[in-house]
Amino acid sequence: MTRPLVEMRNISKRFGGVQAVDDVSVDLYPGEVVGLLGHNGAGKSTLIKMLAGAYPCDSGEIYVNGERAVIETPRDARSFGIETIYQTLALADNLDAPANLFLGRELMTAFGTLDDDAMEHEARAVLHRLNPNFTNIKDPVKNMSGGQRQSVAIARAILFNAKILIMDEPTAALGPQETAMVSELIQQLKKEGIGIFLISHDLHDVFDLSDRVSVMKNGRLVGTRQTAKVTKDEVLGMIILGKLPEEETPEDLAALH
Amino acid sequence: MGQTGFNEIMASDAESEAAPGKLQLGPMDQFSRFTGLDTRLLAMLGALVVIWVVLNVMTNGIFLTPRNLYNLAVQSSVVGVMATGMVLVIVARHIDLSVGSVLGFLGMCIAFLQVEIFPLGAAWNWPATILVGLFLGALVGVWQGSWVAYGGVPAFVVTLGGLLMFRGGAFMITDGRTVAPLDPTYQLLGGGIDGSIGATASLTLGLLAAAAVAFFSLKARAKRARFGFPMKPLWAELMMIVVWSALIIGFVLVMNAYTKPRSDIARGIPVPVLIMLGVVIVMTFVTRFTKFGRYVFAMGGNPEAAALSGINVKRTTVMIFVVMGMLCAIAAVITTARLNAGTNSMGTLAELNVIAAAVIGGTSLAGGLGTIPGAILGAVIMQSLDNGMVLLGVSSAVRQIVIGLVLVAAVWFDVVYNRNRR
């Protein structure tokens, strides 16, 4: 198999008295979707925010393309081709779509001023590709519908040739149709060789899309399995009981039903 | 991208969204779409016109004379200069209560240096004091901004402390003694009898400004056309150019209509007003065309999103206070030059006028919203009320009550306006 795109080795993070992430190792290959599952508070988001540069990790190492990567800020993460679509979308509601797409890496003119026209041009192209009816891109994002806001957040992540995409609960705020849209996009990006971490507390969202699932509970990694080789019930067992399928007892399984 | 299903989904979504949106577009919104001014700024402009007409009637035509408008322009400039900085501060969800005291402190530094430290009469004396003032203003900004950004102390508390500290500092420089007189050339910056640029220069400047408005509007339009973006109709563009040019030339003619005492020599644009207009241009440029300005608005809209986008929120916060400090220095120059003295009470309560100007001018205390021209409009509205009430012989106690009510009403308007937008 090819070299992993990302390896996170023995990552730990503590917030005050809470061990949010405890010695967790996960990896991701090109063109692969890894679902990261667990209850609310299992440590999924914290783990992934360390990859995105939102928090530095207390201990552990991150490797991108086999090389040690020091990621301390969101800017560092972006320099390694890591893009994140946050659960909250992380949009500045008062700014328009182009300003949000290019936030933190604005296009500049030769005079060192913001090149709003060039940014609008690029934004129109990418948003049109995602959604041909998206015309009000110069409105503040707060005037847009949920689907349009989601489009802006997704466009921002794919605009800069991401190699690694982190999607934190991408469908949490969406209806069934928009969820289908995100699924389709994930298939598309997979074909382009992008590796995707898909974070969700909903097993069903993730099961069909991911090649492997990693399950976390109470900050620890329960285990990682090929999606094709486990059943939903087995993964559910991992999420709820925190045990691998082979460790489960009949009583454990009975408790699930 | 092969995603027909996705396109259909988004199309149906867009249609269902668009229909109610279009119905809501009233005549006011359409007008603002054509002019590129937001409805709120237009409402402020309307309020200013009403205030002027009412005050003019009540003062039997004294309010709208060239002489009073000239004074009004000079009076508005100090608050106007600082209000442009307050816009950035409030947009980024902070507040600066210390600007009045910082003005007093920096003004005393400038006056003290000019009169008692640097050699009197030296040509470099007053320019050097201005540079030192700007530098000290920047240092004040670093001090307060660092407490806010790196210390995590709310700006309200840091600048409340600053309000006391810098007022105390202003007193300590000379133990409360007034420092005077200042350099005669320096005094021109305050807009006294000779502190204006004369009729010819004013008119030339006005025509150049009108030409610049036309040039930049058409250039921006040409660029949008090249990209094939949607544009407002050409007649609307031309109408805006005409309106702006008329306002500029009208302003110049009013300033030229006011003559020096016992002569018919036209005064023209006062120097402090020129300074304020320069500040407005620079600050408008900063907010609209620089990364720094974009980041300030992003931080105000969603601080978390700004940080996750890789914006250095802490450094940007310090920068905001540095800009505010330097604008206080400019305001201190105008104040001391106008008084021809440095006194330790300069700028007392100015913070309230400055914050009020920004808020009346449409800067939202919730952060993320505000414009520089709006703040200037706010400063002029405040000053018009104050000026008009002085002309009417209203006592200072009643004036304070009215200004206070106007401030509350402006914030209430902001709340209602934002509620209705949702």
UniProtKB/TrEMBL annotation, chain A:
It is found in: Cell membrane. PROSITE patterns: ABC_TRANSPORTER_2 (PS50893). It is a peripheral membrane protein. Residues 6-243 form the ABC transporter domain. SUPFAM superfamilies: P-loop containing nucleoside triphosphate hydrolases (SSF52540). GO terms for cellular component: plasma membrane. Its main location: membrane. It comes from Pelagibius litoralis. This is Sugar ABC transporter ATP-binding protein. PANTHER family: CARBOHYDRATE TRANSPORT ATP-BINDING PROTEIN MG119-RELATED, GALACTOFURANOSE TRANSPORTER ATP-BINDING PROTEIN YTFR. One of its GO terms (molecular function) is ATP binding. Transmembrane segments: none annotated. Keywords: ATP-binding, Cell membrane, Membrane, Nucleotide-binding, Repeat, Sugar transport, Translocase, Transport. Pfam families: ABC_tran.
